[in-house]
Amino acid sequence: MNARPPVTESLARAAEGLAGVRLDRVCSILAGLAAARYRLDNGLTVLLAIDPRAPIFSYHTWLRVGSKHESPEHTGLAHLLEHLMFKATHRFPNGTLDREMELRGAQTNAATWVDWTYYHQTLAARGDNLERVAELEADRLRGLAFDPDTFASELEVVRNERRMSVDDSALGALGEAVYATAFREHPYRTPTIGRAEHLARTSLEEVRAFYRAHYAPDQAVLVVAGDLEPRAVLSTLVRHYGALPPSGAARSAPRAEPPQTEERRVELTRPVQTPYLTVAYHIPGQLDPRTPSLEAAAEALFIGDNARLYQTLVVEARLASDVEGYLTPFAEPGLCEVLLTLKPDASLDAAVALVQRELERVGETLCEEELEKAKNGLELAYYEELRDADGLAEAMGHFEVTHGDFTRAFEGATRLRGVTRRSVAEACAEVFRIENRTVGVLRPRRGPQ
Amino acid sequence: MSAEAGVERLELEGATVLCAVERTLPICRFAVTFEGGGRDDPPGGAGAHRLWAELSLRGTETLSREAFHARLERMGSSVYASVYGDMTTLRASCLSRHQAETLALVREALTRPGLRDEEFALLRDEVADGLEAERDDEESVAAIWLRRALLSGSPLARRSHGELDDVRDLTLQTLREVASNRLRQGRLIVVAAGDVNVEALAREVESWSRALERPASPPVIASAPMPPLGEPRVLLVEQEEHDQVQLRLATVGLSGRDPKLIPFWLGTTAFAGTFTSPFTREVRDTRGWSYTAHVEFSRYGSLPSAWVLHSAPHRDDAVACLELELELYRGLARGELEKDAIELARHYLLNRQPLSRASVFDLVYPLLRRELLGAGAPSSVELEAGLESATASSVRGALVETLRPERFVAVLAGSVTELEGPLRERLPEATFRVVHARDEDCTPFPR
């Protein structure tokens, strides 16, 4: 790859002569693709990636606020606000943003999680699409109107979303209970969608205050990725965002989770047919040096037909019909979750013991074939994530907001190079300990039939 | 059929290969598809195609299951089976440097599957357990019973995914017969995307065709016809301790070859296919009754596809929500759709065409579907032309001819028994049935 191909040059020069914006960093990211970071004087961070693979662009607005920034006594604000962001602003009536985006054929949505909130649109790279999306996004970043009637109906929508994803969902309820048990101090313990009792008493004023504190240019990262000319993008963004005032709000670091010193258990019963089991272990944050070794272990444990847990629990012991495993991509220490769909007559203790045995063994017994599997599998997954402009923007936005450095999104193919059987053994020995685990059980409670 | 821009088409002995090549990322995807799927499962054998396809990946004549997957997984590659009503597919993903080795394993699975007794028994148990576990998921329950209610009495009411009673009774011999029919008679279509070595792929596919002794022109697969939908039907599916009701209001739409498809699809999108469409606005935004409020309709069906309105209101709102949805549906079936809504949907669908090629990998499924539909299926160019030329009158006409105000099925899944009385009062003309979510009756409305 050339050190400075023409596309990198055009990114490097895009801010030259533009008032209120400066280049911060430029780099090649993949064959033929390059990206840059700029800073506006009001604190707005802009990431720009040139991607000519299709005549489209993705426009992401990432906010450095998620459910971990809420008070534990009042959860769900970040997510509810995400819903309200599609409503009227002081300039534009209700439905304007959705209608404008639909007229332009945009694919549009938003998401909230523990560390962040983001809004995204993907549109054809033509006409005044960029101009209009920048105008509407800049407007709602500071100008949301908070109409009481709209607030009331959208709050009902969110309460219905919670019923669907948690209250009436056995697995949703189990997940919420496991996080609330595994974490005692860190706000990862609270559900992003909000507790039902908190949603029931949320007021418009509380959401408005949350918005004022967290929605401002100095709290946001814009990511534009696609088939666009860098200088035109940058001048459009400066025109629409340059005059927005920063909030100046400082965020305090969330309370650290103290080390877990003994196993925790939580048990639910629901009118389901099948028992489910979650075994969760505290793990380091996504960019911790130990994480690549844990990812290699996770590939051996969870991925593919020869995955150790599938072979042990489904094929050999026949205690489960399905096994999944997952490492959270959180800023601060999160969880490695193992979810088992158990056979109706399976022994829970036997299943937990086998999970523990396999997790303890994987560090010491990982073979070269499994290490190669992990490296190739994670390389494929990394490229899959970057398959289009939206995937590119999402990866950049996540790493910039969660870890302060978008370039870490492009380490995918290389970051496992330093992983060895020894590093995997050390990381697994530290994490997969009984005293570090939380066991969540969902037992069937049979109905009248 | 007209070609798609940027897609290379190869007609080989006994197979068609479509390639969308893009080399920015060193990865490839393949979909190896045989025409014929769950609709062609034998009577009492729903799930046979699924189990055959999955079993073919559990070891070959020369490789044990463990050895097969060790080779595959060491490359980071994956291959999995998916079965629809009208097609059976093996999907593979790999780093492009592993294309040859990955496809060599696909060849082994296709041409020399092990189909061993012990693996069959284990797979059958796993699939049965999975079907049991699906009944714990509200949306799956609604989907299962909607299919049964809409297609009651037809073999199509059985899911390609499998029905519990059928799967438990399946034998390896049934799977062998399914495999023999499909591999030798079903049209073979291979779609590839990404950093593909096209010449090597063509040589590989030809070798499959030779090994399977495939005829140049395989016989056409016959499928069961869609049953007619008569009087209104309301199906209440009881699940204990649910505050929310999964509500589906459905009828039968059009096939992907129907001449009215494009105006019908445009009208469907205008009615409930965007955030600002009238159905979504009324159910979700105005009343806050449901988080989800949208229409589901596939324009790729070889048979007329189900046309389904989805919502999930609280139990206390469910009756009113169904009443509102019926009022909106009946209006639509009478052609009541504002011109503004049609124009917005037209712009929406036309302007999002570039997004359908956001990545070459997005082309795999539409290419496969178009190829299966054959003559009569619009290309992307024809689709755009059709959207441009559809008038408000042709859109309303297609809706009126396809939807009937009194031909619908409503499925309400949740703690719904107490809703029967109020619903009977409001819908005296409908046939009612109350079932439990775990019942295995595939014919809730016998003819």
What would the keywords be for this entry?
heterodimer; A: 449 residues; alpha+beta; seven-stranded mixed beta sheet; five-stranded mixed beta sheet; 15 helices; globular; B: 447 residues; six-stranded mixed beta sheet; 16 helices; 12 strands
Structure explained in plain terms:
The complex is a heterodimer of chains A (449) and B (447). Chain A has 449 residues and is an alpha+beta fold. Chain A is 41% helix and 21% strand. Chain A has helices at residues 6-13, 77-84, 96-103, 129-142, 148-167, 170-182, 196-200, 204-214, 230-241, 291-302, 308-316, 348-365, 368-385, 389-403, 421-431; strands spanning 21-30, 33-40, 45-50, 56-63, 107-112, 117-124, 220-226, 264-270, 276-283, 320-327, 334-342, 437-444. Chain A has a 7-stranded mixed sheet with strand order 1-2-3-7-4-6-5, with helices on both faces. A 5-stranded mixed sheet of chain A has the order 8-12-9-11-10, sandwiched between helices. The mean pLDDT of chain A is 95. The model of chain B has no long low-confidence stretch (mean pLDDT 93). Chain B is 42% helix and 17% strand. By secondary structure, chain B is an alpha+beta fold. Chain B has 16 helices and 12 strands. The longest helix of chain B is centred in the last third of the chain and has 19 residues, at 315-333. In chain B, the strands form 2 sheets. A 6-stranded mixed sheet of chain B has the order 1-2-6-3-5-4, with helices on both faces. A 6-stranded mixed sheet of chain B has the order 9-10-8-11-7-12, with helices on both faces.
Condensed summary:
The complex is a heterodimer of chains A (449) and B (447). Chain A has 449 residues and is of the alpha+beta class.
Break the fold down into its secondary structure elements and pairings.
The complex is a heterodimer of chains A (449) and B (447).
Chain A: H1 6-13, E1 21-30, E2 33-40, E3 45-50, E4 56-63, H2 77-84, H3 96-103, E5 107-112, E6 117-124, H4 129-142, H5 148-167, H6 170-182, H7 196-200, H8 204-214, E7 220-226, H9 230-241, E8 264-270, E9 276-283, H10 291-302, H11 308-316, E10 320-327, E11 334-342, H12 348-365, H13 368-385, H14 389-403, H15 421-431, E12 437-444
Parallel strand pairs in A: 3-7, 8-12
Antiparallel strand pairs in A: 1-2, 2-3, 4-6, 4-7, 5-6, 9-11, 9-12, 10-11
Helix pairs in contact in A: 2-5, 2-8, 4-9, 10-13, 10-15, 11-12, 12-15
Chain B: E1 8-12, E2 15-21, E3 27-35, H1 48-55, H2 65-74, E4 78-83, E5 87-95, H3 99-111, H4 117-134, H5 138-150, H6 164-169, H7 172-185, E6 188-194, H8 198-212, E7 233-238, E8 246-252, H9 261-272, H10 278-286, E9 293-296, E10 306-311, H11 315-333, H12 339-351, H13 364-373, H14 380-389, H15 392-402, E11 409-414, H16 420-426, E12 431-436
Parallel strand pairs in B: 2-6, 7-11, 7-12
Antiparallel strand pairs in B: 1-2, 3-5, 3-6, 4-5, 8-10, 8-11, 9-10
Helix pairs in contact in B: 1-7, 3-8, 9-12, 9-15
